[in-house]
Amino acid sequence: MFAPTRLAGVVLVGAAGLLAGSSAHCAGSAFIRGPTAGSGVTRLELELDLRRPPELRGTATLHGTSAASEPDELEFLLNRALRVDRVVQDGAEVKWHSGPRLRSTYHSEARVVSVQRVPAVGEWSLRVEYSGNGANGTEGEDWMGILLLAPDELRMSVQTVFYPQVGADPDGPGVAPLPSSVRVMAPEGFEVYVPGKSLGSGPAEGGGTTWSFESEHPTVLSLFAAKRVRRETQLGDARVVTLLRDEHAHLAEAISREARQILESYAQSWGPIGGRTLGVCEIDGRGQSYNWASQGIITIDRHAFGNGVPVTKLAHEIAHLWWGQEVVASGRGERFLTESLAEYASWRYLAKEHGAATAQREIDEARDSWLNAVHERGADPALADVVFATPDYTSLAYAKGPLVLLAIERRIGAESMDALLRDHRTAAGDGATLDGFLTALRKHAGDPALVAPWIERAGHAHVALGSVRDEDQKTRGSVRVESCPARCPELVPATLEIGARWRGRSETITIPATTANLEFEAGWNPPPPVIELDPRGLVLGERGTALYRGLARFVSSEPLDGAQAVALGALTVRLRFAAALGPPPEDAAARIQTACTNAALAASSASAADKTARRKDPQMITVKSVRLGEEDRALCIAIEGTTPAHEHVLVVPAGFLDADGLPLPEQRVTFTTGAADPDSLPCIVSSEPANGARDVPVGIKNIRVVFSKPMRKSVGFKTWRIAELEKKGRAFPALAEAVWEDDRTLSWKLSKPLEAGRGYGLPYDERYYDLEGNELVGFELTFTTAGP
């Protein structure tokens, strides 16, 4: 996620390290749009007192120079939650008032303050004293637009304008980067990160710690502070600073190493950019996963870490150093030129450094999430029209947009795509526009409407391979162009590709897509055992189908496709073929899991779109392992378990290979399980604290429940059930990780101490299943802590 700011006077990133050369850009008014040039401000000295969150007290001293002809009014931006207490120029108080209303929604929490500066020739200084409150993090709104001053975390970004920013462009977001020095007084035990050179820390008068920083180049400031483990890694003349929670501190070196690799990869593709310091800070997302980048700082939500380095998130946010910070887009298509470019960049990096299969999983998930979203809503707008307020914004900006960029790359080649983006970056100058991007696209790819019509037009394509026959030493077939089931506009590119594969050989033909039923003909000899529609994925919409005519044709499955009353519990589904298969890929289970999940979500979307259908929650299948059996003629897929009286869909995506190395088409097996035995439902038999307990010590470290039967290792709670308990006066405790101590005992660690004299509740419900798939008998664990 990124909301743009200007980056000026940056230090370049080269293949040999973070520093290589100097910036071709200049600082100051060249980066300002609108009425902000000529403010005369040359330097900022900032002091912040953050020791009593959510209270903030700040003093900002603006230094400048003036000529006699310059106006005596200075405008700056400041967060609406903050108030100006006093403005002093050269020792004398001066008046101030609210300035013009912002037309831009970028600084949605800001206002313009106009100071009646005393006319002065030469050097002058203006001190602004201000105070106020930030959000305490309990409202659930938790991204970079919030001036977040919570007891355990302090977070302030460019968009929160937590200090006076000049100048105040009503159309935003551009403000002047300034040489700056920062002094921060933070609570005891907090680590503080501000982009720039750290001048050290020490005890603060009145308690807490004082941190001092100095910018190494003109900058727009962001700040992060929390109780974290701090690590600094030197990379040449630059450094990466990580501020991580205790449980992720061991990842610091790996994150720094990955960050350097990402920076070098992007610099090789689009030219160097970057900063002397890059901070990677772990934030507490309070229930949702938001990641964002600001100048010199990247924050990663704790939920994104999983079991290792969140490579995809890190690659996306680092890409914003190029697409968002140096190249600041505006107008139509701004989200496409910012978020879509960053996500596309992360796919490129994954493919290069972590393998094509890893990148393809991300691509497939993006394609399916976008289609599920637009089909459920029945609207698929042009990327040029996508803004924050657009319904399904996330799937459009983070999925459809990068898919379009990927389609362009596959049409013109990676080298031409990089040249296109370098041209876009160079031409952006004081701001990138969609027209500028389309100009670069025409230069490298011809008519943009032929390459990526989805940028300017709504809708998408649905195409499928039809009948195929061999006769007269030719292969003839058809392609169906089908209407969107959700009635989104039909948008088919000018041409479609048909691919043919033999063992160790492939060919492609291109046909014009001018009618609803297309015919193709090719003199392939011998006839190909595999024919694929859209083999390079150039058509957005449903992925092209494949026809397999090799020896390893699908024969049958166990359970049979469409079987009823299948026994409950763990199950191995067998897909049998007429000839031997190749070894499953290392990520076979993950690929099948993704396909099954997407199929369940698509079924849910289709049900929601069909108002006459009786909606039923899709059943997710959990894949445990994949292996070959029966002399390599069977694909054996072990699933963790089933759910009573539900339809289950197992999907093996296209791309698994037969023994000759030829790709198999997608295979699906659908079956329905039998009903549960009402006398065998699992329940919770005991808990710590005991249900209904009073005077529970606030210092307990865990909350534990014991089930009546062995259970699947599921965890979590439903949000609406938590809300119901809160209406009854029961707070939801701050939980950290869940640990299954054995197959019947689940323990939750607490991330924060309980509050004295407060009632708590946890709603255990149908999210939990026994090994046969029977749902838990609902149980609300409630208790009250001892008073203060």
Helix-strand blueprint:
Blueprint lengths: L40 E9 L5 E12 L6 E7 L2 E8 L2 E2 L2 E3 L11 E7 L5 E12 L14 E3 L2 E4 L23 E7 L4 E3 L3 E7 L5 E6 L8 E4 L2 E7 L2 E7 L7 H19 L6 E7 L8 E3 L2 E5 L9 H9 L14 H21 L1 H22 L15 H20 L1 H15 L5 H12 L2 H4 L11 E9 L2 E8 L13 E8 L2 E8 L4 E6 L7 E4 L12 E3 L5 E5 L4 E4 L4 E7 L10 H22 L13 E7 L4 E6 L7 E6 L14 E7 L10 E5 L4 E4 L5 E6 L11 H9 L7 E8 L2 E6 L8 E6 L14 E7 L3
Parallel strand pairs: 1-11, 17-18, 18-20, 29-34, 36-41
Antiparallel strand pairs: 1-2, 2-8, 3-7, 4-5, 4-8, 6-7, 9-10, 10-15, 11-14, 12-15, 13-14, 16-17, 19-20, 21-22, 22-25, 23-24, 23-26, 26-27, 28-30, 30-32, 31-32, 33-34, 35-37, 37-39, 38-39, 40-41
General description of the model:
There is one protein chain. The chain is globular and about 95 Å long. α6 packs antiparallel against α7. It is built from ten helices and 41 strands. It is α+β, with helices and mostly antiparallel strands.
Helix content: 10-25%
Structural class: alpha+beta
Please outline the major beta sheet. 8 strands, mixed
Outline: globular
In terms of DSSP E residues, the strand content is 25-35%
Keywords:
disordered N terminus; single chain; about 800 residues; 41 strands; five-stranded mixed beta sheet; alpha+beta; eight-stranded mixed beta sheet; 10 helices
Give a quick precis of the structure.
By secondary structure, this protein is an alpha+beta fold. It is built from 10 helices and 41 strands. An 8-stranded mixed sheet has the order 5-4-8-2-1-11-14-13, with no helix packed on it. A 5-stranded mixed sheet has the order 16-17-18-20-19, covered by helices on one side.
